């Protein structure tokens, strides 16, 4: 009952986050279309539907590969996780990441739904922590490669590029190190248990219940640490997860290139343009990943304009931004929202997995 109450509170917050996204999207759309509106709308209306579908396929690839990674991590820890169960968890996680500031809600809601599927909290937190650590590590490595490969090109016309890259790398590196330390630090875990115990004493007088709650938390953290150490010893598995994440990032960040093809943007050098599209998109993801607005709305659009101003003709940059953002953010929000509503109702009626305590 308490979990359902918590979900209602969180969903009310999510509603206002989506309102923020809609408002910012409306402003961006107006700014993109306010000049030469008829010509830009005509460009969007005449977009090649087949290339648009390929671009949508990039999002499907992102979801499917996320589910596959969750499966692989679960398997490495000795847990069976069916693909048909991992896929909705991946889509729902991406939905809540897009609908919450700094993508902060994705993992929390994935834990909630994996709990509904039957996983212990310890297991789901372990799987998602490992997934997040490897993902951020992969993003940092791919961002370094992207920056090296494209810095001279983007720096020739983009203002303050070194500063933006420094902020992006610093923010992601700090988060990566904090999560890595928090996941493996005994001192942090002891501090967490002591903090929870103090909070419980403020609201409960039953010392026995406080003791049992803190002991249960300590047991779960001990299990988490043991499982994490087991995975850390399997360096081959970690490397495989890392490679899969790198391939995911490469595939996902081809999206601007397919948007160019859909709008009929003239391309002289296909390999070079594809590389710049991927590098620009990866660096946008790096810089905007911790903007404290749902979906990094506003920031992502601004940096798209800065990175792609020389790749898109002036008259197609606005339509390109709208099409890119529609596929990259609004499509996952709509489809993810529908799947979240459906799967929530479905899983309440039919538990999928039973994991022994």
From TrEMBL:
Keyword Lipid metabolism among UniProt keywords: yes
Subcellular localization, as worded in the UniProt entry: Cell membrane
Segments traversing the membrane: 15-33, 49-73, 125-149, 161-180, 241-267, 273-291, 303-323, 329-347
Molecular function per GO: phosphatidylglycerol lysyltransferase activity
GO cellular component entries: plasma membrane
EC class name: transferase
UniProt catalytic activity: L-lysyl-tRNA(Lys) + a 1,2-diacyl-sn-glycero-3-phospho-(1'-sn-glycerol) = a 1,2-diacyl-sn-glycero-3-phospho-1'-(3'-O-L-lysyl)-sn-glycerol + tRNA(Lys)
Keywords: Antibiotic resistance, Cell membrane, Lipid metabolism, Membrane, Transferase, Transmembrane, Transmembrane helix
Superkingdom of the source species: Bacteria
Any one Gene Ontology BP term: response to antibiotic
Enzyme Commission no: 2.3.2.3
Primary localization: membrane
Membrane-protein topology: Multi-pass membrane protein
Entries under PANTHER family matching the protein: INTEGRAL MEMBRANE PROTEIN, PHOSPHATIDYLGLYCEROL LYSYLTRANSFERASE
Family as reported in the entry's similarity comment: Belongs to the LPG synthase family.
Primary role: Catalyzes the transfer of a lysyl group from L-lysyl-tRNA(Lys) to membrane-bound phosphatidylglycerol (PG), which produces lysylphosphatidylglycerol (LPG), a major component of the bacterial membrane with a positive net charge. LPG synthesis contributes to bacterial virulence as it is involved in the resistance mechanism against cationic antimicrobial peptides (CAMP) produces by the host's immune system (defensins, cathelicidins) and by the competing microorganisms.
Matches recorded under NCBIfam families: flippase-like domain
Protein name, entry field: Phosphatidylglycerol lysyltransferase
Lineage: Bacteria, Bacillati, Bacillota, Culicoidibacteria, Culicoidibacterales
